[in-house]
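User:
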Amino acid sequence: MEIRLENENDYSEVEVLVRNSFWNIYRPGAYEHYIVHCLRNDKSFIRDLAYVIEDDDKIVGHISYSVGYIDYGDVKIDAVVLGPVSIHEDYQNMGLGSKLIRHTLDLAKNEGIPFVFVIGDENYYHRFGFESASKFDIFLDGTDRQDECPFFMVIVFDKTKLKNKNGTFHNPDVFDVNQSDVDEFDKQFEFKEKLILDSQLKEL
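Assistant: Predicted structure:
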């Protein structure tokens, strides 16, 4: 099993992996594979942190990073965000996601990236050193600043790069997808049924 940089020959296989990993998990169907597809040609994409795990010439894990920004009102600063992360269903609960995350976070730190945001399960990401971003007075765009947002987290390598005041984090524009574009993109993949499940995120 090998952790290595993603290359162009991996793109199609990675998109199938991401699609299968997220299908019907957070919503009927998925759009994370479309985000991964669009990221590769977007200025926000961090190509040096796009890694895969390969086992017997089969890609079983993938991770992406991109650059959003923190809006402090008077100034905007670049801010790296982790995700999506995908692990093949036959390889889950084997620690491969943790290996990918730790490997790439170490690379990010060594490259001088001062902090990394993530939106996900706090019970999972705390193990890597992520903390609630509200501790640093940074809030996710579109969320209520008066409510704790435990799924929006940050790991800080250099606190001097953060401003000592309230800021709002914005994902890269490529994360704002149009469902009709996703549906059109999905036509090239094997048919999968969209299901509405009780475990999925509910609209606020």
